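does this look right to u?? 4'-phosphopantetheine version
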Amino acid sequence: MPLALYPGTFDPFTYGHLDVLKRTLRLFDRVEVTVAVNAGKETLFTPEERVALARECAENLGPSVEVEAFRGLLVDRATERGAAALVRGLRQVSDFDYEFRMAFANRKLAPEVETIFLTPSEEHTFVSSTVVRDVHRWGGDVSKFVPPPVVEALREKRR
Ligand code: PNS
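got this back:
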């Protein structure tokens, strides 16, 4: 039963992430959404909150999706879980540079683990967690960018 890891910071989980996750499920029997807790970034949501939100957003997709927090090297997680691939979403050309560097670094570290890039639907091309946090910061409506549990969690953050 081939397993893929879908890693990221997910701060927070967006409709773009959900789209890529659904596409991954067309290719793999099982997917672990791997929430990185050491991405070297300041996050709005704690690791526990990011995991809980991704779980809520993915719950309709059934038991083939797991959401787990992870600290360390991604390829170590992939090896530990016996994952065949790492899946990353590619939205636009500007994502390429960073993604290619990461894919080649991961390949050097673990040649047996493939990186697969999936493209979300056009309507999610410009959705990113950064945009969501920015719109939220200035009081904008994020409901077109993130699933309802995240809308609610952002509302809670404001209180
Ligand atoms: O959603 P993001 O922030 O673009 O995800 C980046 C992430 C978490 C996938 C990346 O930072 C990562 O893999 N971190 C774990 C540490 C690691 O394995 N680093 C080597 C890859 S270059």
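Residues 3-158 form a domain with the Rossmann fold fold (CATH 3.40.50.620). idk if thats expected tbh
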